[in-house]
Structure formats: C-alpha cells, structure tokens
Amino acid sequence: MPPDVLLFDLDGTLVDSAADITSAANHAMVQIGREPLSEAIVRSYIGNGLAKLIERCLGDDQRDHDRAVQAFRAYYRDHLTDQTRLYPGWLERLERWHRDRRMGVVSNKPSDFTRKLIDELGVARFFAALAGGDAYLEKKPSPVPILEVLRALDGSPARAIMIGDGDTDMRAGRAAGVPTCGVLWGYTSEAVLREAGADFVVRTLDELAALIDG
Questions:
Q1: Is the overall model pTM greater than 0.90, yes or no?
Q2: What would the pLDDT profile of 45-103 be if each residue is shown by its tens digit?
Q3: CB atoms within 10 A of CB 31
Q4: Which residues of the chain register pLDDT less than 50?
Q5: Buried b / exposed e across 142-162, counting CB within 10 Å, b at 16+?
Q6: In this structure, are 65 and 105 located in the same domain?
Q7: 60 CB-near residues (< 8 Å, 6+ apart)
Q8: Which sequence positions are flagged as catalytic?
Q9: φ, ψ for residue 101 (rounded to 5)?
Q10: Residue 207: enclosing H or E segment and its boundaries?
C-alpha cells in the first residue's frame, strides 16, 4: 500500500546546499585563522548537524569550535540560498503529492535555518510539520524527531516513508519503524545507504515517484 505520510531529509535530498554550506564553513575557518576547505571535503561532512560539521572541519585541533559555530551561523543566516536550489523536478512533484498526502521535513540542520531555507525556496507551504536538528534533545539517527513529526501529522510508522540521502536518515527511520528510501543524488554512496539498512534505494526522482505512487 502506498504511504500516505512522506518524511523528507533536506540537504542532499530536497536541496543541493553544499556550495552555500561550504562558503559558510570556510568563512568560519578564516575567522578563526584556519585554511579554507574544498567543497568536496565539506560535502562529505554534511548530515550530522552544525556542531558535527564544524568538528569535522577542525579535525584534530578543536580549539575555537564554539567560535567557529557562531561565525558559521552569522554568515549562513544571510547566505543560505545564494546558490542553494531545489533539485530538478521537486517543485512539481511536491505540488502533486501535497494534494493527497501529508508531508514533513526531518533534518539535522538547525531549525531556524531549515524553516528559512524552505520558505525562501517557496516550498514551506507543502510541509505541515518540521523538525530541525535542535528541535528535540536527540536528532537523527535517533528515531525521536521522526516519531514527533509523525505524531504532528497524525501518521503511523507503517503508512509513512522516510526519504533521505544519508545513513542517519536510514538508521533513524528503521529505529522508528518507518520504511526508508535512500536517494543517490545527494552526499552519500549507495554502499553506505545499504549498510545503514535502506529498504529502498533510488537513483532518480522518477524512480522515487514510482515507488511512492505505486
């Protein structure tokens, strides 16, 4: 039976935000006297929230971690959609699914940035519930944010699906008893998604649509 509640990760799933995240991370690095990093490196660090992103950027020397987080936040707040866009086809697909399904966003991105990003990209109206990485005491791969968003949408795990590009999405979904679908246009490999227990893996939005629409 097709799911009636769709839960989406944000970065690497709905939007390609790596360039803007890289710009903000490198702004933070420069502010604390560190060398900037390549987009490929920063892209590989995305998915576990802001604090973990900065921790990975800093490597072995974690001095100035808090200062770097604050520098990132101050810069990213004003630049989060300089280059970030929805992946092709998503606007039309969300419009279609919005007619007969309930949808929510479950991201490890800070909540204020998550709300601002989907608002600036014109898709906030599609999502009746949202959880950022700081919405609850635990974030993905904990099942807590998924279960809370499901509760807000009056949905059941068996009739939902968690869609994301990261192992944290797959692990959180499985822990919540929600079927999971990994997408391969984001920031994580198929091997990592399958190792994390993805129930389905899709390469294109058309494949995802066929899975959801039955």
A1: yes
A2: 999 999 999 999 999 999 999 999 999 999 999 999 999 999 999 999 999 999 999 99
A3: 16
A4: none
A5: bbbbbbbbbeebebebeebbb
A6: no
A7: none
A8: 9
A9: -135, 155
A10: helix 205-213
